[in-house]
Amino acid sequence: MPTRLYKSGFGTTDTPGDIVCLRADLSTSGSYFTFNNGGVVYQVPTLSSLYITHLIYSVATTTGDFFRLLYGTNAIQNTTTAVAGEVIRTSFFTGDSAAKITAIDIFVPIPGANYPAVFRTGSGGNMQITAFGIVV
Questions:
Q1: Cα dihedral 33, 37, 55, 50 in deg (nearest 10)
Q2: Rounded to whole angstroms, how far apart are CA atoms 70 and 14?
Q3: Computed from CA positions of residues 76, 22, 43, 92, in that sequence, does the dihedral angle turn out positive or negative?
Q4: Rg (CA), the chain
Q5: 2 forms bridges with which residues in the sheet?
Q6: How far is it, in rounded angstroms, from Cα 74 to Cα 83?
Q7: Where are the domains of the chain?
Q8: Could you give the CA distance from residue 17 to residue 39 in angstroms, rounded to a whole number?
């Protein structure tokens, strides 16, 4: 049985939901990547919503990168082809420290039947992003 909770990061719901841990490993600037859960492309269940409430990210070199959290109607894996129906939720600058791990609390809703994804720009080498959220 999945873990049920009311709170993840600073996000709180009035209904218990399932916690999810999503991962994206991006190696190419200008690429899109749909988040994975346990190595499988993650799609928000129909008639549910995903609320991303916490991010952990790092980049391999000191040049600094930008990335955008978004969602779309199809899955894309580390390619320059955009996700269909792209909706950008928020953007981040990774800073200029190599291998620096950054953790932040956020609140990003993703509607059901969509694929949460990330778009990355910059030349900072490999980037890893882990997102935690609640599905309700």
A1: 100
A2: 25
A3: negative
A4: 14
A5: none
A6: 6
A7: 26-135
A8: 21
What does pTM read for this prediction? Answer: 0.86
d(CA 76, CA 98): 26
- In angstroms, the CA 76 to CA 64 distance is 23
The token duo for 25 is 């490993």
pLDDT per residue of the chain (136 residues) written in tens, 0 to 9: 455 555 555 555 566 778 899 999 988 888 899 999 988 999 999 999 999 999 998 887 766 788 899 999 999 988 888 899 999 998 888 776 667 788 999 999 999 999 999 998 877 678 889 999 999 8
Report whether 17 contacts 134 (CB < 8 A): yes
| Helix (H) or strand (E) run with residue 107 in it | strand 102-111
What single letter denotes the amino acid at residue 128?
Q
CATH classification for the domain delimited by 26-135, as one of 1.10.10, 1.20.120, 2.60.120, 2.60.40: 2.60.120
Distance CA 29, CA 61 (A): 13
